[in-house]
Fold each of these.
Amino acid sequence: QKEVEQDPGPLSVPEGAIVSLNCTYSNSAFQYFMWYRQYSRKGPELLMYTYSSGNKEDGRFTAQVDKSSKYISLFIRDSQPSDSATYLCASISGSARQLTFGSGTQLTVLP
Amino acid sequence: DGGITQSPKYLFRKEGQNVTLSCEQNLNHDAMYWYRQDPGQGLRLIYYSQIVNDFQKGDIAEGYSVSREKKESFPLTVTSAQKNPTAFYLCASSMRTDTQYFGPGTRLTVL
């Protein structure tokens, strides 16, 4: 079993929809959670960063962590065609030296 | 312009040939990383370095080698021992392990 599981999609939504992207993880020691966005043939860019449980909002993006159920979510409001990309979740424990990535979810927002 | 650069963008390798991928950063980050990305898979860690003249193997180090002679540079050599080297290679750097910043990637193809 992978430490971080992510539905690969692909996921297609109409412009303006609310998008929900999700990951589950198995390592209870994970404390830091990240979402990266990767456009086709480009390097990933850090989108959201959260520590422990709770919500974090940045513009149209909200990251949510529920440590009790080991569930990580990214919500995108008013989705735009420019949001079309692969979204990768990642986690790490406080003492670890490497991130653990999910396999990525490919999102397409249709105009 | 601060950031991470990788070169070349595209690289072609013949069977039995060693090739070296370049990664340079001017962010003054201590740590640097090499990942491999295959279609439909997440990022897999090849090697990482926390400090100059020191590096550690990641999950898939076999067939690869690295050096860290300067803080700014972390080249990756794909040796002939790597049996399936065709992939997208990503370099990253960080001040802390959790927030990693990625370069644009190098796409390696074996002819």
Amino acid sequence: KQEVTQIPAALSVPEGENLVLNCSFTDSAIYNLQWFRQDPGKGLTSLLLIQSSQREQTSGRLNASLDKSSGRSTLYIAASQPGDSATYLCAVRDKFYFGSGTKLNVKP
Amino acid sequence: EPEVTQTPSHQVTQMGQEVILRCVPISNHLYFYWYRQILGQKVEFLVSFYNNEISEKSEIFDDQFSVERPDGSNFTLKIRSTKLEDSAMYFCASSGEGQGYEQYFGPGTRLTVT
């Protein structure tokens, strides 16, 4: 069974810092990997999707990479802002497995 | 921008009662999903639906659960006889063909079973 792990579980950084969130998965036979953000009590907002044949995707200050062979993905957030504070989830699709998330707090 | 909507936002029900959670997926999407998130836990996949059929389901999705697309716009999740442990946030999602089947989530329905 696929296991998805996200490290760290929580992260607190000052505004302006660049940061990296990690996602690892045990079975490399994935169809795609999707990063989401979840605000407290709210739904999930899709940030980036990387298909299994791709190595990275970029959207604004976000860059996500995928290394299927090592079972890893990273989400890089440049120049963090207080509005980036949320829980970030990764999900792998073979059978739709989610990680438990990284709770990010960006301090003004 | 098109979005997935869900009603109600919060449902309180007594144990043993039937509940129906409703979702309106993005209009040109063909794939529909239900997930749940118990407070403080991971988001868990329940079921996927395509072409008026269940395409995949998890072990959570037992005989107490059913899904339906009663018309061209709605997608529903029914829980026949709710249990206390069904209390969770239920998310609907949809995806289209292309763009890697990127999933778009609704805001969720918080189900509280008393």
Amino acid sequence: EAAVTQSPRNKVAVTGGKVTLSCNQTNNHNNMYWYRQDTGHGLRLIHYSYGAGSTEKGDIPDGYKASRPSQENFSLILELATPSQTSVYFCASGDAPGHLNSDYTFGSGTRLLVI
Amino acid sequence: GDSVTQTEGQVTVSESKSLIINCTYSTTSIAYPNLFWYVRYPGEGLQLLLKVITAGQKGSSRGFEATYNKETTSFHLQKASVQESDSAVYYCALGGSSSSFSKLVFGQGTSLSVVP
């Protein structure tokens, strides 16, 4: 079954430390996304990718980097974690194969606490 | 740009009463907008509740309905009789192809509490 898998499910990090959130998809979608979800803000797009080797800035990229080494994998990297990055992070894959019908699948989320 | 607006941040409804959560959208880059409602139950991930890809059509799932209205650029979520198990956060989203990229834009979310 096609799916998006995120790891870890939960993470506690110290301020100033490096954090890597991983995402794997088996949907064969070209596009992948990282969102963060905070109360009152909905889901906000951090980075996205068109395909292997590409990463693009979303609406709130500051403090984050992304890496797409393959079609299946898309990582979100916090080089110097700060408490303001405490949030729930969702990875998704998506495509619009016919340009009329869009298809998106979300992972279960990673809950990150930066102390 | 592209945006989605949900006017209610928090809604409390008594069990068996009706519900409407408002959603309006705006897009300048998506040629064929698709509209979605996602739901996040406490402690769980994001789930697709319903999706409509054609203006004028209605989507339905688990007793919820939403009609894609291109004239008013709206996609309100309705349910005739809510249950406690419907308590969750609901997100309206706009998706579709913008040139060669498929994008998905979310509203702020509406937290629904259903009380006995």
Amino acid sequence: KNEVEQSPQNLTAQEGEFITINCSYSVGISALHWLQQHPGGGIVSLFMLSSGKKKHGRLIATINIQEKHSSLHITASHPRDSAVYICAVEGGATNKLIFGTGTLLAVQP
Amino acid sequence: SAVISQKPSRDICQRGTSLTIQCQVDSQVTMMFWYRQQPGQSLTLIATANQGSEATYESGFVIDKFPISRPNLTFSTLTVSNMSPEDSSIYLCSASDPGVFRNTEAFFGQGTRLTVV
């Protein structure tokens, strides 16, 4: 079993829909990251969470430390949101990240 | 925040040859990492690039295959040596600095898409 599990693996949505991507982890962590990877391969950091909730534009990320679960929400989705969204957790003092397998999101106009 | 310039962005190489990938950060950072992402897979850490000393490799990765340099706090290189088609992947560098950025926020290069033929 992977230490970081994401669901769904693939998601197709219509423009304007509210989208939720889930991440569960089985290890103790100091922080959780949500990342966005575009087809060229480059990765952009969206959020880093250690508790509670963060919001940036149409993106919202929440984390429940007790349940070892995080969600990434996209409101009013747009085709430009189409990308792979990756959950990664960080534990210990080494700043190493453990990555989920990613969620491939396609938003259709 | 930090900006990481990674190059080349992509390359097609002959088996048996070597490719060196460079990452330049626009500020000094304590930690730099190199990852591999095989087709359809998640990212796997190859090694932590240590400034002024030998890199720390993860299980399954060795210095002879993936030599890494880190001559200063803003630059690192990864070489993929004696390549085979199984080395075809996206290679990414990452940087973080708990003392500078927000906690341990990670920044990534644009990735190098390597195809070995």
